[in-house]
Design goal:
- The chain is α/β, with parallel strands linked by helices.
- The chain folds into four domains: 132 residues, no CATH class; 71 residues, no CATH class; 56 residues, no CATH class; 206 residues, 3-Layer(aba) Sandwich (Uracil-DNA Glycosylase, subunit E), CATH 3.40.470.
- The chain contains 20 helices and 14 strands.
- The chain is elongated and about 120 Å long.
- The N terminus is likely disordered.
Length: 508
C-alpha cells in the first residue's frame, strides 16, 4: 500500500443506480433491468431495487417506469448475449415472484457472481444458490395451491362492462403468483367469463383475452350460493374416517387457505366424529362384491352357456349337443372361429379320447382330429388295431383359438378360463357317451378331466382316477410329437405304447 494514500482524501462513492419496477409480479421487467445493469458492469452494491410505490427522501427520483422499461428493452435487443446458466434463468422466472422484498437484490447478486466466479456454477451448496432455489420452490408451491384452492362463485347477473363476468373467486396468495397462474384458469375455464380477486391484483377473462387490474377487498367477491351447499353435502358424504390423516391433510392443504375454502368448515366436526364413524363401519361388516365380466366391446359380448345341470333344458342327444355348441359364446374364442367342433363317435363307445382343441383343419371341416395331428393319431389307431368308429373323439375346448400371421392361422393354447367355459360341454358329452375309460391327450385335456393341473411328462402312461370313478390314461397330444426335438419314430413308438395300455378297456 502506498503510505501517501492514507493522507489523501477518499474518492467520492459512486451514486447507486435506483431501479423501481412497475409491478411486484413483473419478472420480465426485472430480467430486462438486470441484463442492462450487467452489460454496464454495475456491481450488486451499486444497485438499489425498489418495490412499486416505495419512496425514500434520500434517494433521487428515478425516471418514469415507461422510459426505463423502453431503455431496458432496447439494451436487451441490441446488447451482447450474457452467458448465464439455463438453470438460473429458469429459477429467476419463479424466484422473482417471491414475496421477499430482497429477492431482486439476491437474484442480481447471484447473476453477477455467476458471470465473475466461474466455479460457482458447480457449487450447489452456495448460500445464494440455495436461497434462490428455496424461493423458486415456494413460488411453484403457491401456484399449485392456487390451482387447487380457487373457488369460483356465480354472480346474480353478469357485469355490465364489456367483460360480462359471470363468476368471481377470491384468493389470497402468499407470493405474487396471480399473473403467472391466471393462464391456467383461462385454459381450464375457457368458455366461462371469470375474475379472480386478490388483495394485490385481479385477473379477468372474457373467453378471448386475459387482463390484469388492481387489487380488491374480500367483500367485493360474491357470497355462497345454492350450488355450494350441494358441494358441501357431497364433500361430507364422501368423507372416509378410515383414511383420515390430519398431518398429511394439513401439509397438502395448509391452514392459511382454510378461511376461503367452503369445505374447511366441515373438517373439524368430521375429524372429531371420525373414530365413532370408523367403529360403526367396522361393526357393519363387509359387503360381498358383485362379480362382473368386463366387456371389451359389443362384439365380444359374452352369453352364458346353457346350464347342463338342468335336466329339462340340457340336450338329450349328441346331435342336440352339437347344435347347442354352435350357439355358445361363453368365451371370446367362439366369436372368431369358423364353427364349433363337437365330438365324433357313437353313444356307448367304450373309450373316449380327449384332445386339447380343434386345429385349423378341424375348424374348417367341423370334425375332430382331421389335421396333421389327427393323421398321426390315425396311424397309431391302425397300429393298435383300434377302429376309429369304435371310439369317441373330442376336445376339451370346442373352438379353434389362433393367432393370425399373414395368411396363416397359428395355433394358440387356450387359457384356463376358456377351457373352464367349455368344461360343462365336455362333462355333458361324457354323460351322454358313458365311456368305460378316458384318454387325456395333453395337459389341457388332463386338467379338464381331472380338475387339477397334471405334469404330463411325469404322469404319461399312468391311470389316474376321476372324481366320478372313471379311469383316465394320461399321455401326450399327437401335436407334441410333431413339435418335439426327439426323433419322430422313437417318440411315436413310446406314445403308441402309452395308448396300448387302454386296449383292455376297449375290448371289454
Amino acid at each position: 500500500m502506498n503510505p501517501r494514500s492514507l493522507f489523501e482524501p477518499a474518492a467520492p462513492a459512486a451514486a447507486a443506480q435506483v431501479v423501481r419496477l412497475a409491478s411486484l409480479d413483473d419478472a420480465g421487467a426485472f430480467r430486462d433491468a438486470a441484463r442492462r445493469l450487467l452489460l454496464q458492469q454495475v456491481p450488486p452494491e451499486g444497485v438499489q431495487w425498489l418495490e412499486p410505490q416505495a419512496a425514500d427522501l434520500f434517494i433521487p427520483a428515478a425516471g418514469s417506469a415507461a422510459d426505463a422499461a423502453e431503455a431496458m428493452r432496447l439494451d436487451a435487443a441490441n446488447g451482447p448475449a450474457l452467458k448465464l446458466p439455463a438453470a438460473f434463468v429458469e429459477l429467476c422466472q419463479h424466484a422473482a415472484l417471491h414475496a421477499d422484498p430482497g429477492r431482486h437484490a439476491l437474484l442480481y447478486r447471484l447473476a453477477w457472481r455467476l458471470l465473475h466466479e466461474p466455479g460457482l456454477r458447480a457449487d450447489p451448496l452456495d448460500a445464494d444458490w440455495m436461497q434462490v432455489q428455496r424461493m423458486a420452490r415456494a413460488v411453484r408451491r403457491d401456484m399449485h395451491k392456487m390451482t387447487a384452492f380457487v373457488r369460483f362463485r356465480p354472480l346474480p347477473a353478469p357485469t355490465d362492462d364489456d367483460w360480462r363476468i359471470t363468476h368471481v373467486a377470491w384468493f389470497e396468495p402468499v407470493h405474487h403468483t396471480l399473473r403467472a397462474t391466471a393462464p391456467f384458469f383461462a385454459r381450464r375455464f375457457a368458455q366461462m367469463p371469470w375474475a379472480i380477486l386478490t388483495p394485490e391484483a385481479s385477473a379477468r377473462w372474457d373467453g378471448r383475452r386475459l387482463a390484469f387490474g388492481p387489487g380488491a377487498r374480500r367483500d367485493e367477491a360474491p357470497g355462497p350460493d345454492a350450488a355450494e351447499q350441494l358441494w358441501l353435502t357431497y364433500y361430507e358424504s364422501i368423507f372416509n374416517p378410515a383414511r383420515l390423516k390430519l398431518t398429511m391433510m394439513r401439509k397438502e392443504m395448509p391452514r392459511r387457505y382454510w378461511k376461503n375454502l367452503p369445505e374447511a368448515a366441515l373438517i373439524q366436526p368430521l375429524a372429531a366424529r371420525a373414530a365413532e364413524r370408523g367403529a360403526r363401519m367396522v361393526a357393519q361388516g363387509g359387503t360381498e362384491p358383485v362379480r362382473r365380466r368386463p366387456l371389451a366391446s359389443l362384439a365380444l359380448r359374452i352369453e352364458p352357456p346353457p346350464p347342463v345341470t338342468d335336466a329339462a333344458a340340457a340336450p338329450a342327444t349328441l346331435a342336440e349337443l352339437g347344435q347347442a355348441l354352435s350357439r355358445c359364446r361363453a368365451c371370446p374364442i367362439g366369436q372368431h372361429a369358423t364353427q364349433a367342433v363337437a365330438g365324433e363317435g357313437a353313444p356307448g363307445a367304450r373309450l373316449m379320447l380327449v384332445g386339447e382343441q380343434p386345429g385349423d383343419q378341424e375348424d374348417l371341416q367341423g370334425r375332430p382330429f382331421v389335421g396333421p395331428a389327427g393323421q398321426l393319431l390315425d396311424r397309431a389307431l391302425a397300429q393298435l388295431g383300434w377302429p376309429r368308429q369304435a371310439l369317441y373323439l373330442t376336445n376339451a375346448v370346442k373352438h379353434f383359438k389362433f393367432e393370425p400371421r399373414g395368411k396363416r392361422r397359428m395355433h394358440k393354447t387356450a387359457g384356463q378360463r376358456e377351457a373352464a367355459a367349455c368344461g360343462p360341454w365336455l362333462e355333458h358329452e361324457i354323460a351322454l357317451v358313458r365311456p368305460a375309460a378316458l384318454v387325456a391327450l395333453g395337459a389341457t385335456a388332463a386338467r379338464a378331466l381331472l380338475g387339477r393341473p397334471v405334469a404330463v411328462t411325469e404322469a404319461r402312461g399312468q391311470w389316474l382316477p376321476r372324481f366320478d370313478g372313471l379311469p383316465v390314461l394320461v399321455t401326450l397330444h399327437p401335436a407334441a410329437l410333431l413339435r418335439g426335438d426327439a426323433e419322430l419314430e422313437d417318440a411315436f413308438a413310446a406314445w403308441a405304447a402309452d395308448l396300448a395300455r387302454a386296449t383292455e378297456h376297449l375290448a371289454a
